[in-house]
């Protein structure tokens, strides 16, 4: 199907499906309106991330991201041009998504263009917030919630996802001259950039990665401690994502964190199985909660 023959929604659908991401598998069980909305948001994220990851000249990449900053302004003034922003036009109105969220994501993309190292976790945290936590916040708005603590859950779950990505992609990133592990932590554990490039899986590197894994796990734990039971059912798509991502993190750990020599991933069928199993589990949990709530009332 050519670009001209596609509807905006079809363009987003194809963009999301082609990515093969864990996120896509968690979207499939949503009601149509919410599924179309989250796929449009996800397609936007993929589109701008592809700009950053392309082999184009840095100046061209920067120009494209700046174009997207203007296109988001066009979206909120009612005059979008791109298929993704055309698909997003009804979404931002229906789900009350603020313009600043999209601009924050683009600021995160600019960080990738301008910054290849992070001094400490505070600096990295801003990047993770922009490229992941903000997406979590938008997702929470689309999925629906009653308790504002759910936004804290969404923020921290986004952090957990991004930290998992960073652990998985250590070698891919350094191959592109990017290091997301904070510089002060590399120094603390005695791991050099040259050792990362040489794929040296030393005891020091193992300790460094164990520290990264524990931090990621702490964000998963903190996220779910903040998710009110009353919002679990509407947020179950995020819970499915979390189960897939946490399983990936466990696989990395079980493999000994050999992320310098391989990129560990879950096959599509396993992601579908996890999604089905988690959805079934959450449906049962919700029925129990409704029953208990009715008895208490």
Overview of the molecule:
The structure is a single chain. The chain is an all-alpha fold and 297 residues long. Helix content is 74%, strand content 0%. It contains 14 helices and no strands. Helix 8 runs parallel beside helix 13. The termini are far apart. The relative contact order is 0.10.
Features:
mainly alpha, 74% helix, 14 helices, single chain, 297 residues
Brief overview:
It contains 14 helices and no strands.
Secondary structure topology:
Blueprint: H1 8-19, H2 22-27, H3 32-53, H4 58-76, H5 83-94, H6 99-114, H7 121-143, H8 149-168, H9 170-175, H10 183-189, H11 193-197, H12 203-226, H13 236-254, H14 268-296
Helix pairs in contact: 1-3, 1-5, 3-5, 3-6, 3-7, 4-5, 4-6, 6-7, 7-8, 8-12, 8-13, 12-13, 13-14
Percent of residues in beta strands? under 5%
The level of helicity is over 70%
How much is the radius of gyration in Å?
20 Å
Main beta sheet strand tally, sense and closure: none
């Amino acid at each position: 199907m050519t670009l001209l023959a596609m509807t905006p929604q079809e363009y987003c659908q194809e963009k999301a499906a082609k990515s093969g991401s864990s996120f896509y598998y968690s979207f499939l069980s949503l009601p149509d309106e919410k599924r179309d909305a989250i796929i449009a948001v996800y397609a936007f994220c993929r589109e701008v991330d592809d700009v950053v990851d392309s082999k184009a000249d840095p100046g061209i990449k920067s120009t494209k991201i700046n174009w997207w900053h203007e296109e988001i302004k066009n979206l909120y003034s009612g005059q979008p041009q791109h298929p993704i922003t055309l698909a997003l036009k009804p979404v931002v109105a229906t789900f009350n998504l603020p313009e600043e969220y999209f601009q924050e994501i683009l600021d995160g993309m600019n960080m990738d263009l301008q910054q290849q190292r992070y001094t400490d976790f505070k600096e990295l945290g801003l990047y993770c917030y922009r490229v992941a936590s903000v997406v979590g916040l938008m997702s929470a708005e689309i999925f629906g919630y009653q308790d504002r603590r759910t936004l804290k859950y969404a923020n921290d779950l986004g952090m957990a996802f991004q930290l998992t990505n960073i652990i998985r992609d250590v070698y891919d990133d350094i191959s592109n001259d990017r290091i997301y592990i904070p510089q002060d932590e590399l120094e603390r554990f005695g791991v050099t950039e040259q050792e990362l490039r040489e794929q040296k899986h030393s005891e020091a590197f193992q300790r460094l990665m164990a520290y990264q894994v524990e931090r990621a796990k702490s964000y998963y734990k903190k996220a779910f401690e903040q998710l009110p039971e009353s919002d679990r059912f509407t947020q179950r798509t995020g819970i499915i994502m979390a189960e897939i991502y946490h399983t990936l993190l466990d696989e990395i750990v079980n493999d000994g964190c050999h992320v310098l020599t391989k990129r560990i991933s879950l096959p599509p069928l396993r992601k579908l199985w996890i999604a089905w199993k988690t959805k079934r589990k959450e449906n049962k949990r919700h029925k129990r909660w409704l029953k208990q709530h009715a008895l208490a009332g």
